[in-house]
Specification:
iron-sulfur; oxidoreductase; Riboflavin_synthase-like_b-brl; 7 helices
């Protein structure tokens, strides 16, 4: 389940001074393995300075493109992002896990009008979704609000302009710049007035079916709350994905003392061992050298999801699973502590 495949870097394109687009060549025999829905991500594994790193990056290319491209923005103390921006070269081989993720757009026969709000590197899955929306139906429309400090720091700026020229009557983009006054952009940050201006003013005649939000948590909550308070849409039509870990604001009840007998199923193999309830499930699993799927280890991606078969566990934070999925027994193992004497989880049954 946590299988990685060696993929060759086919192309590297600078996007800004601190970000690049990396395109992988997909061998014919892996075409089905690496088929993806717009909005999904891949997990890359790389050993740097003797330490294995796993990082998730959203796919920016269209599912119809026949290739997989990801955008990697350099971040402070980002070992892999620094490597990708300065040392990675065409022809290098990286270990890559097949696409995953739930922040997706699935084309339908019925025409769809989609709106998205993105900031910074949050554009990466959104541009894939935009391409899929526009390609899948000649009647589909896409409205995008994209915030950055300036055009210089705007990832995929050229690609977005080209998309606008190609779909003049169906793709509408609003660049928001917070530190530079740029031509054909709004000055400031994405806020309530921006949401109202774009959705209730400029495009009041378009009935938006779904909204996709991607970027910092503060921006996502602001847009989400604005859409709901203005009665523009409801929760089930708002899809979002965080790009960074956030501090836990709500007080989490401490995990009880004691140990749990944990049984883990992964790749049709079963393992049983004792673990401390104060330890997170994924940490305990990895300590036993069990090859469970994981990436961010911060509750941001959905790679480490498993299903509880017996017992209970408490998650420290969750921005991915719905209440219904939690009721069905799904947990983010990187955030979960056992709360019962025994716990059985299955990584395969998700």
């Amino acid at each position: 389940m946590a299988h990685f495949y060696p993929l060759t870097v086919q192309h590297i394109k600078p996007l800004t001074d601190n970000s690049v687009a990396i395109t992988f060549s997909i061998p014919k025999e892996l075409t089905k393995t690496f088929a993806f829905s717009a909005g999904q991500y891949i997990t890359i594994k790389k050993e740097i300075k003797g330490k294995e790193l796993r990082r998730s990056y959203s796919i920016s290319s269209s599912p119809k493109s026949g290739s997989i491209t990801v955008g990697v923005k350099k971040v402070d103390k980002g070992s892999f992002s620094d490597y990708a921006n300065h040392k990675l070269a065409v022809g290098d081989v990286l270990e890559v896990m097949p696409p995953d993720g739930r922040f997706v757009f699935n084309p339908t026969v019925k025409p769809k009008n989609i709106a998205a709000f993105a900031a910074g590197s949050g554009i990466t899955p959104v541009i894939s979704i935009a391409r899929s929306v526009l390609e899948s139906n000649p009647k589909n429309k896409f409205v995008l609000v994209y915030g950055n400090k300036s055009y210089k720091e705007t990832m995929f700026y050229t690609e977005l302009v080209k998309l606008q020229l190609e779909y003049t009557d169906r793709f509408f983009i609003y660049f928001i710049c917070s530190q530079e006054r740029e031509e054909n952009s709004l000055f400031g940050r994405i806020d309530v007035s921006t949401v109202n201006y774009v959705v209730k003013n400029k495009h009041k005649d378009i009935a938006i079916d779904d909204f996709y939000l991607c970027g910092p948590e503060a921006m996502i909550h602001l847009v989400k709350d604005s859409l709901k308070e203005s009665e523009i849409t409801s929760d089930d039509h708002i899809h979002f994905e965080l790009f960074t870990e956030t501090e836990i604001k709500d007080e989490i009840p401490p995990a009880p003392d004691g140990s749990t007998q944990l049984t883990v199923t992964v790749d049709d193999e079963e393992f049983t061992f004792s673990m401390d309830k104060r330890v997170k499930v994924l940490d305990a699993v990895l300590k036993e050298n069990i090859d469970a799927p994981y990436s961010c280890q911060g509750g941001v991606c959905s790679t480490c999801i498993a299903r509880i078969k017996e017992g209970q566990a408490l998650m420290e934070k969750n921005q991915i699973l719905t209440d219904e999925e939690i009721e069905e027994g799904l947990i983010l193992t990187c955030q979960a502590h056992p709360t019962t004497p025994t716990l059985k989880i299955d990584y395969d049954d998700v």
